[in-house]
Amino acid sequence: MNSNEIRERFLSYFESQGHSRVASSSLIPVGDPTLLLTNAGMVQFKPYFSGEATPPNRRLTSSQKSFRTVDIDEVGDATHLTMFEMLGNFSFGDYFKDGAMEFAVDCLESAMGLPRENFSATVHEGDDEAYDLWQKHGIPTERIYRFGDADNWWGPPIHGDEGPCGPCAELHYDFGDARPGCGLDDCGPNCENVNPDTGLVCQRYVELWNLVFMQFYRNPDGSLPPLPQTGIDTGMGFERLVVVLQDAEDIYGTDLFLPLIRKVEAIAGHDSEESAEVRQAMRVVAEHGRSSAFLIADGVVPSNDGRGYVLRRLVRRAIRHARRLGMDEPFLGDIADAVTDIMGDAYPELRNNRDFVQTVIKLEKNDSVGLSRTATRC
Ligand code: SER
């Protein structure tokens, strides 16, 4: 399945379960001063969770453009992204834990064709109900793990000051022997063990889907009153799902990124497998080029503060890494065009604003010339 088919299959599955499909909102959050950039599928639905507005349907589904600034400096490894897509299904006073967990297992199994025996699950350490429900939906106890707030609580303490929040349960995909694991006895979801023989971090499990049981509203003063009604907010990392379904080595081996890497290789005249340094630089150029195209298509322009500064950092970091590859000619515009070819059907704003994206990239590139001349070549 190509990535467009996978996204469509997810949204169609939830439509067939009574959900209405909602378009991704802009990366610039609308009417939400608590956030710099949209960082999850639930952002556009906050007023529905808090009870301030009534949703068009008590069941919604979306594929949401999301951006997390915390990971900018990690980009270039095999897993971190700035802009990613979050697949989600949402309930506002309709189904709760039982329904959300049943949908998650069934969607992965029946719509995506993944074998249930490869799923492992987590719950918040105090959530016995969720623990029992995973069993009810076919996950055996030896594959259910309990974690504390750091892993299994979602909400504003981490992602903003104020808003709906609650405990979570997650589904992880277990690659078994197909990926290099740590081989240690305590291996499981969220494993960060280092394999004693290879020195590599365990890659056996990948977290696919986070199911948040929305029950509380965090106020800026720290109080946590219950929401007027319970809700479900789920988020599945689209790129990770594509890695699993396309059996790719990592995100850069999927059809979302491989054409971008090939484009960088063609412009740079290098092979991405030449060395670890070349591979890392190419990933940064491809990833930041993609994220920049999305930000600009949503109306972000480079500046020295706020979201404009995030964009400026991306463009300048991409230019710095491009110089390491010996790329001096304009290249971000080419990457943006390739992104539009891959994702323009799902996100028409990329096509509608193609010229604007090209103009902004050109102006920023000219502004930045000279800034990165000192970059060391790979
Ligand atoms: N809001 C949750 C997350 O971002 C689930 O969508 O993981």
TrEMBL record:
<dbReference type="InterPro" id="IPR045864">
    <property type="entry name" value="aa-tRNA-synth_II/BPL/LPL"/>
</dbReference>
<feature type="domain" description="Alanyl-transfer RNA synthetases family profile">
    <location>
        <begin position="1"/>
        <end position="366"/>
    </location>
</feature>
<keyword id="KW-0820">tRNA-binding</keyword>
<dbReference type="GO" id="GO:0004813">
    <property type="term" value="F:alanine-tRNA ligase activity"/>
</dbReference>
<keyword id="KW-0547">Nucleotide-binding</keyword>
<keyword id="KW-0694">RNA-binding</keyword>
<dbReference type="GO" id="GO:0002161">
    <property type="term" value="F:aminoacyl-tRNA deacylase activity"/>
</dbReference>
<keyword id="KW-0030">Aminoacyl-tRNA synthetase</keyword>
<protein>
    <recommendedName>
        <fullName>alanine--tRNA ligase</fullName>
        <ecNumber>6.1.1.7</ecNumber>
    </recommendedName>
</protein>
<dbReference type="Pfam" id="PF01411">
    <property type="entry name" value="tRNA-synt_2c"/>
</dbReference>
<dbReference type="GO" id="GO:0000049">
    <property type="term" value="F:tRNA binding"/>
</dbReference>
<dbReference type="GO" id="GO:0005829">
    <property type="term" value="C:cytosol"/>
</dbReference>
<keyword id="KW-0648">Protein biosynthesis</keyword>
<dbReference type="InterPro" id="IPR018165">
    <property type="entry name" value="Ala-tRNA-synth_IIc_core"/>
</dbReference>
<keyword id="KW-0067">ATP-binding</keyword>
<dbReference type="InterPro" id="IPR018164">
    <property type="entry name" value="Ala-tRNA-synth_IIc_N"/>
</dbReference>
<dbReference type="GO" id="GO:0006419">
    <property type="term" value="P:alanyl-tRNA aminoacylation"/>
</dbReference>
<dbReference type="GO" id="GO:0005524">
    <property type="term" value="F:ATP binding"/>
</dbReference>
<dbReference type="InterPro" id="IPR002318">
    <property type="entry name" value="Ala-tRNA-lgiase_IIc"/>
</dbReference>
<keyword id="KW-0436">Ligase</keyword>
<dbReference type="InterPro" id="IPR018162">
    <property type="entry name" value="Ala-tRNA-ligase_IIc_anticod-bd"/>
</dbReference>
<dbReference type="InterPro" id="IPR050058">
    <property type="entry name" value="Ala-tRNA_ligase"/>
</dbReference>
<comment type="similarity">
    <text>Belongs to the class-II aminoacyl-tRNA synthetase family.</text>
</comment>
